[in-house]
Each structure stands twice: as C-alpha cells, then as structure tokens.
Write a structure and sequence with these properties.
- The chain has 404 residues and is an alpha/beta fold.
- It folds into 3 domains: 194 residues, Nucleotidyltransferase, domain 5 (2-Layer Sandwich), CATH 3.30.420; 93 residues, HRDC domain (DNA polymerase, domain 1, Orthogonal Bundle); 87 residues, Orthogonal Bundle (DNA polymerase, domain 1).
- 51% of the residues lie in helices and 9% in strands.
- The protein has 20 helices and 8 strands.
- The chain has a 6-stranded mixed β-sheet with strand order 2-5-4-3-6-7, with helices on both faces. A two-stranded parallel sheet has the order 1-8.
- A hairpin with a 2-residue loop joins strand 4 and strand 5.
- The longest helix is centred in the middle third of the chain and has 21 residues.
- It starts with 7 loop residues before the first strand and ends with a helix.
Length: 404
C-alpha cells in the first residue's frame, strides 16, 4: 500500500510580509539588493481584471536568494527599467508567463531568459498546472489561492492580500528547480528552452479589426441593423470604460448590449424595461445608450456591418466537411497523428503542435507532400525545432497517403 504524502500548508512568508515599495528611494534599495542576490528571480504580477480597464499590473512581486521578497506598487513606481537593467542577465521564473509578460513589459521589465513553471508542467504531462496545484503536487506544500480574482487596484492593499502575494513567489524558484530536474531526466529540457524563448519573442497581440464582434451572445443577433446596434453600444461602452478606468462589463454587461439589439428600444422607458439595464452603472448612462441605439437605427444601409468578416486563416473546422471535404480528411488524419505523438510523449496535443498550425498546414498543404516540404511549411507557420523534428515525418506520411 502506497504511503499517502503529507501536504504542509504554506501560511507565512519566511521573512514575514515585506513593506510595499511605493517610492523611488525604496525601489533603488530593492534594485541594489536584487542585483547582489544569487540565482533565478521569481516574479509574479497582480492585475485588476474584471474591475479596471485593460490589464495593467497593480502589484509586482519578486523573490531572489540573498535578496528576499519585494512587493512593488507599479502605480507609485511605474518605471521598473532600472530593475530590468540590473537583472538583464538573470533567469526570470514566472508561472503562466503569457499572462504576466504584457503587463511587465508596460512597466519596463522585459526578461531576457525565462523559465515558465506552468509551461514546464504541460510539457511534463501534469494534468493540472495551476500554481497552487503544481506547488502541492511537486513540492508537497499548499498555497492559499483566495485572492487571485481580487481588485488589486485597491489602496491600501489589505494585509492578507499582501501575504497571499508574497507567498505566490515564496517557493517559485524551488518549483522551478524541481521541474528543471524532471525536464532533464525526461529529455525535454531543450524542448522547454525553445518554448521559453518563443514566449519571450511573442509579439503583442494585434488589435482586432472588429473587437465588438466578440460580444458574448452575439450569435443571437440575426440581422445587420441589430448588428449595428451591437457595434454602437459596444463602442460607446468602451469609451466610457476607458474614460473611467473600469472594466467594460462593469459599465454595461454584454447581455444588455445583445438584449437592446434584439428589442431595438426607441424610448428611454423602453430601454429601462430591459432587465439587463437595471444596474446602477447602466442607469447612469441611459442617455448615451439610447443615443447609440438611435444612431444605429438611422445608419444608411451602406454603412451597416456585414454578418461576418473573413479572417486571415482557415474557416472554422466544423465547416470543412462542406467547404472542402478533402481538407477535412487531411485535418482528421493530422489530428490523429498529433494526438498519438502527444500521448507517446506525455503532454497535451496543443503543446506538441499548436492547433492553428495543424489547421493551416492541412487547409493549404504543400503542393508536393514530402518530409522536406512539410518541414518547411511547419517552420514557416512558427513551429519550434523540437516540434518539427517530432511531427514532420509522421504528418508527411499521413498526408501523402491521402494525396495518393
């Protein structure tokens, strides 16, 4: 019978809760201390998603051997380029780096070397890769995760929130060391290094041409006049949210936008009768909402939005059997190859080869299917060297069978 592992709660930072760094003199002392520390630096950032407009950081946490833990207020200290310069040659340890890197870039902190503990967990085949679960599974320590969705723009930050924030980086380097060893033993360390480097090279997401089309529930809107109402209300909401630094959903929920598009209210009274407009914030801007609906109703036909706009890639996979049955067969064959390889190497299929790469390869395959042509196509689509080496030949074999 296997002995059950004892899980130890991690309740307090080793050196206690550090003071929040909120002035340039204190920040300079942190920069000096961390520049003299040893080994990788654990970093985390807390945002106020769901409360504030955008995804800026409202607290940055760091920990390094020999320097301890620092909690930096990036609103009071918005320029961390000095800290960035001091740690230019140092490995930065993040968990789910793609979430934190954009807001760290905004304050001038741009890691040159990265270890992503979440991504390492995925490559190693861990089923659940949240920080708390990984710390518990790998290190046998339990983190309390009660404040992850808090409004981190709150000032002053409560002590229990600061304790939570400090604990998030308390054992991140220890987790990194354990996963580094597992990657080495499993032969996946170089794969991980390629993935980490790719994460650092990832450019910022390009602005969407029609971001209003992502309104939740927009599929219920069936005509272009109603789509125009969605567009006008979404645009008005975004302007108000930006001006007041509020998450758009706190100004007006998506459900209200869709409901107005379906009901087409012509008066303030009709607008107030829509249940989704009963929130305090929604009522505060009734005149703006009604004006947006009126503008959409008055638009000439030539200025109405089309039902959908073509993307820059293949159509949704569920349409392939009707649009191109042969491509649908290629996609099914390629997915089967990737799934089998992923199972063999104990990782999710989407980490072995990104789904978008698989779709683009099979929608527009090379004119002649060979190992070399598939290799070149995969590289052109951004697949990493380790991914190409594992998948190019089996994909070429599967696709050539269909071509033949």
């Amino acid at each position: 019978m296997t002995e059950e592992r004892t899980i130890v709660p991690l309740l307090e930072p080793r050196e206690g809760i550090p003071p929040v760094i909120a002035d340039e003199a204190a920040l300079a002392r942190v920069v000096e201390a961390f520049s003299r520390g040893d080994g990788p630096v654990a970093v985390d950032a807390e945002r106020a998603s769901g409360y504030r407009y955008g995804n800026r950081a409202y607290l940055v946490q760091l920990r390094r051997e020999g320097a301890g833990t620092a909690l930096i207020d990036p609103i009071a200290c918005p320029d961390l380029s000095g800290l960035d310069a001091a740690l230019a040659g140092t490995e930065i340890v993040l968990h789910a780096a793609s979430q934190d890197l954009p807001c760290l870039f905004e304050v001038g902190f741009r890691p040159r070397a990265l270890f992503d503990t979440e991504l390492a967990g995925r490559l190693l085949g861990y089923e659940r890769v949240g920080l708390g679960t990984m710390v518990e599974t790998v290190l046998g320590l339990r983190l309390e995760k009660g404040h992850s969705a808090a409004d981190w723009s709150t000032r002053p930050l409560p002590e229990d929130w600061l304790r939570y924030a400090a604990l998030d980086v308390e054992v991140l380097v220890e987790l990194r060391d354990a996963l580094h060893e597992e990657l080495t033993v499993s032969g996946k360390l170089e794969w991980a290094r390629e993935e980490f480097a790719a994460a650092l090279r990832m450019p910022p997401a390009a602005p969407r041409s029609d971001p209003w089309r992502r309104t939740s529930g927009i599929h219920k809107v069936r005509n272009v006049r109603a789509l125009a109402i969605v567009r006008e209300l979404w645009t008005m909401r975004d302007r108000i949210a930006r001006e007041h630094d509020l998450a758009p959903g706190r100004v007006l929920p998506d459900s209200a936008i869709v409901a107005a598009a379906l009901d087409v209210p012509r008066t303030r009274k009709a607008l107030t009768e829509i249940s989704a407009f009963t929130g305090r914030s929604a009522r505060r801007h009734m005149s703006e909402w009604l004006s947006a609906v009126s503008r959409a109703r008055a638009l000439p036909d030539g200025q109405l939005p089309q039902p959908s706009t073509p993307g820059d890639g293949p159509p949704p996979a569920n349409r392939w059997p009707d649009r191109d049955p042969v491509a649908a067969k290629r996609l099914a064959a390629a997915r089967a190859v990737v799934a089998a390889l992923a199972e063999e190497h104990h990782m999710p299929a989407e980490n072995l080869l990104q789904p978008d790469v698989v779709r683009r390869l099979t929608w527009e395959p090379p004119e002649e299917i060979t190992d070399e042509s598939v290799t070149e196509r995969l590289r052109g689509l951004g697949a990493r060297a380790w991914q190409v080496s594992l998948t190019a030949h089996p994909l070429a074999t599967a696709l050539s069978r269909l071509a033949g």
